[in-house]
What we know:
The chain is an alpha/beta fold. It has helices at residues 12-18, 34-40, 59-73, 82-96, 109-126, 222-232; strands at 2-5, 43-46, 50-51, 78-80, 131-145, 148-151, 154-157, 171-186, 191-201, 203-206, 209-212. Residues 1-26 have low confidence and may be disordered.
Amino acid sequence: MQCLTILPRTVLAVLLVVFTWQAYAADDAYWIDQKTFKKTIKTVAMAPAEAGAALNMPSGIGVLIENEVAARLERKFDLIVPDRYRTIRDEMERQVGGYLVAGTDEPDSARILAVREHSFREMLFQYHMDAIVTVQVRLVGAPFDKNKAEWDGVSQNISTKGGRSLFSDKFGGTVTASSLQISIFDRRQNLLYSARGGIEVVMQIDEQSLVPLPTDQLFQDEKLIKKAVQLALKQL
Length: 236
């Protein structure tokens, strides 16, 4: 089989990081002994859902994700809701003057990191919690074969009408897709649990090439969001 990998230039840097996270097998979501996890983690704080700017995720989808995740976490833990964290984070962001480099539209990674670290410390100070849950929508690489992409527990057809001529059964490769990644860290910021659930491809075959989908066509199916939450929290 010939191999073809086509990724938008804007996401290549992101994927260099994301590719270090592989699809998880049944027992691989836990980074510590499961029995120890279940005995020691009783109260968790949930951070607000985040997504990369390139995804342009609507605020309503963020709310949907948070509600779905929170509903499932409440079955297992005493939950400190995302609004507690959001209040602290927003105040920290105001204190540092926002996330952008002064006079530009570019994000300042140092400020972003500082806000996250300070918010985490303040949460520890204000609330009793055993761990914190982060919820992130990420861009990932989804292998495809015969016009079908498979990644993080889901599959999706990437062809559109008239788009099969270039990508015959002889070709396979990698297309960009989105996944929901949920991670749990202890009070010392050690990783305890991390798993992903696939959401949707963000590229499709159009005539004879792979092209990014317009951002206004993404996050249109709530069932895909709910399925991604289920997959990411399945091992809990």
